[in-house]
Amino acid sequence: MKTKIAIVEDNQGLRETIGSWFTDAAGLVLVGSSNSTEEALRELPQLQPDIVLTDINLPGADGIECVRKLKAKLPAAQFLMLTIYEDAQKIFAALEAGATGYLLKRSSRDQLLQAISDLKAGGSPMSAQIARKVVQSFQRAQPEPDIALSPREAQILQLLAEGLLYKEIADRFNNSVYTINAHIRRIYEKLHVQSRSQAVAKFLRL
Asked: Does the first or last residue of the chain, that is N or C, have fewer Cβ atoms within 10 Å of its Cβ?
C-alpha cells in the first residue's frame, strides 16, 4: 500500500509545488492539501494520512497547534514540520507537540523524499542546521535530579535527538535493536513520555 501524505501550507504556490513532488514518487500518494489549521482539522481526520507536512506560520492557529490537535485525532500519523524557522524555542515546541521531524523550506525535493523515507523507517529527520541546534542544546542541558538516566541512556537519547534510526544506534553500540528498544522504553518511563520527539524535547527543556 502507498504511504498517504497530506500538506498543511497557506502558500498556495508552494503547496502545489510540494504536492507535485509526490506525483511521480514511488510508494507515495498525496491525499490532502490544506491551507490552515482549521481546514486541516476538518478534512484530514477523514483522509487518515500516514504523514502530515505542516508549516509553522499558518493563519489562525499556527502549525505547532495544528500538530498538537491533529495528533489527538490521528495518533498513528507522523508529523514533519516544513518551515523557515530555525530558533530553538519553535523546534522544541514542535517536538513537544508531536512532530517527529523538522525540515527547513529550502530543502530540496530529494531531501524531502529522503526525510519521508526516514520517517517510515522510524527515524526523526532534521535539516543539518536544525540537528546542530538540537545537539548543542542537548549538550548544555542537564536533567533534573529525579530523572536519573544512566550514561548509556543519555548517549542513546542524544543519538535519538540527532535523528538516528534504532538500527543505527544499535550498530553504534554493537548491540541488538531489541536491546536498544529496551533502553528506549526505560528512557520513556523515566521521562514520563510516549514518543522519541517528546523525550528529546522534555530532556532539552529541563
From this structure: N
